[in-house]
């Protein structure tokens, strides 16, 4: 069975469109990408942000500075190497990231409750496999 990537993408965008949280904050896509990077990877500093976003160190530093001022991130010295300054999400940052990248759990629960147990199992297994493979390809 050949994969139909365009169809999968269409399904994903339909799911996200109908089940995402209402967006209440005015927040840029770059800020969300930085929050995701800090959440998903270990030992992230300004250099890693610059590399990830393909921007200069100075630009990345300005983004991070504003995010610290908005209480989305905190900076901490590395435990093993105190010369390193590492970024971590604050509680506010975690909440903002969740609302801007996750599905609304109440909406998702409503949809899942409409499914048969076998359908739920298939969906959960498919998402688990796709998530695991996605983590190994990057």
UniProtKB/TrEMBL annotation:
InterPro entries (UniProt xref): HTH_MarR-typ (IPR000835), Transc_reg_Sar_Rot_HTH (IPR055166), WH-like_DNA-bd_sf (IPR036388), WH_DNA-bd_sf (IPR036390)
Localization (cell): Cytoplasm
Keywords: DNA-binding, Transcription, Transcription regulation
Lineage top rank: taxon: Bacteria
Keyword Calcium on entry: no
Domain HTH marR-type: from-to ranges: 1-132
Keyword DNA-binding appears in the UniProt entry: yes
Classification via Pfam families: Staph_reg_Sar_Rot (PF22381)
One term under GO cellular component: cytoplasm
GO MF annotation terms: DNA binding; DNA-binding transcription factor activity
Family: Belongs to the SarZ family.
Entry protein name: HTH-type transcriptional regulator SarZ
Organism phylogeny: Bacteria, Bacillati, Bacillota, Bacilli, Bacillales
């Amino acid at each position: 069975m050949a994969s139909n990537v365009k169809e999968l993408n269409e399904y994903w965008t339909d799911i996200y469109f109908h089940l995402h949280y209402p967006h209440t904050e005015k927040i840029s896509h770059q800020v969300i990408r930085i929050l995701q990077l800090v959440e998903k990877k270990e030992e992230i500093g300004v250099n890693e942000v610059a590399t990830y976003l393909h921007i200069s160190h100075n630009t990345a530093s300005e983004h991070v500075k504003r995010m610290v001022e908005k209480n989305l991130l905190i900076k901490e010295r590395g435990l093993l190497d105190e010369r390193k300054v590492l970024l971590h999400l604050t509680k506010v940052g975690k909440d903002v990231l969740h609302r801007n990248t996750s599905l609304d759990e109440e909406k998702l629960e409503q949809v899942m409750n409409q499914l048969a147990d076998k359908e739920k199992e298939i969906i959960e297994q498919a998402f688990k496999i796709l998530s695991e493979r996605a983590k190994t390809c990057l």
